[in-house]
Q: What sequence folds into this?
């Protein structure tokens, strides 16, 4: 027995000690960054339309990015008057969150072909550039013209709880079209609905219709009510019929 114990002890002495594996940031290596593309309508009227390019980060599992990269806008088929030139530096510190580069495209009402520009990445520090250019495609909304209108007014019952007012565009959306809506109170009684100051309607790609929804107060003791729905600030094209009445009746 004593001999067996001594042998076991000897084996235990010679067995190597394997340290627990540890992970360091050095094992992660530099993260990669990629510039995304963005496609949107040019817009009509004064001002600019924001084109938002996402610069995404890719790392090994469990790792984060620390570093920086420069960006600059470059003309492809656009003229200098079409863009608000942008340049700068994006920085990450122990993060994997995408960064945004916002470029202003000058709106106008002139029919013209589609145009393009790019956002180019360069000068990476502690990062590797996987896709150095994001393509910006400017869709003309003047040929054919894009016009968005309300369908018309409505008469509805209070017990229904809400009312939907339709909107439609003159041509299918080639990029998402957004517009805003609000309610306008009439009369001297308190509103028998929940007022909307700035609602958002989005018409998706390929569609021609959207909806403005207004919630109604269902208390049957409230009197009949009337208000207006108005649309404003479209992201593309112009507006046709912008304001319609809604009459709310209480069932008796």
A:
């Amino acid at each position: 027995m004593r001999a067996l114990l001594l042998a076991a002890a000897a084996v235990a002495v010679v067995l190597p000690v394997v340290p627990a594996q540890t992970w360091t940031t050095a094992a992660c290596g530099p993260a990669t960054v990629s510039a995304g593309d963005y496609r949107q309508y040019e817009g009509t009227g004064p001002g600019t339309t924001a084109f938002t390019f996402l610069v995404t980060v890719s790392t090994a599992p469990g790792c984060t990015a620390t570093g920086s990269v420069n960006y600059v806008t470059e003309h492809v088929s656009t003229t200098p008057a079409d863009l608000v030139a942008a340049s700068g530096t994006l920085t990450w510190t122990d993060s994997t969150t995408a960064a945004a580069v916002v470029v202003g495209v000058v709106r106008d009402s002139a029919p013209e072909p589609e145009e393009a520009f790019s956002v180019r990445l360069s000068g990476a520090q502690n990062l590797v550039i996987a896709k150095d250019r994001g393509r910006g495609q400017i869709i003309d909304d003047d040929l054919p013209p894009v016009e968005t209108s309300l369908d018309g007014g409505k008469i509805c019952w209070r017990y229904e709880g809400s009312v939907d007012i339709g909107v439609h565009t003159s041509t299918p959306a080639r990029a998402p079209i957004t517009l805003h809506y609000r309610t306008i109170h009439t009369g001297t009684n308190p509103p028998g609905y929940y007022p909307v100051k700035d609602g958002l309607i989005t018409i998706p790609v390929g569609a021609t219709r959207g909806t403005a929804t207004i919630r109604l107060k269902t208390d049957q003791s409230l009197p009949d009510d009337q208000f207006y729905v108005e649309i404003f600030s479209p992201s593309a094209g112009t507006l046709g019929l912008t304001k319609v009445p809604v009459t709310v009746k209480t069932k008796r």
Q: What stands out?
A: The first helix runs from residue 2 to 14. Residues 147 and 226 are 27 Å apart (CA to CA). The first strand starts at residue 31 and ends at 35.
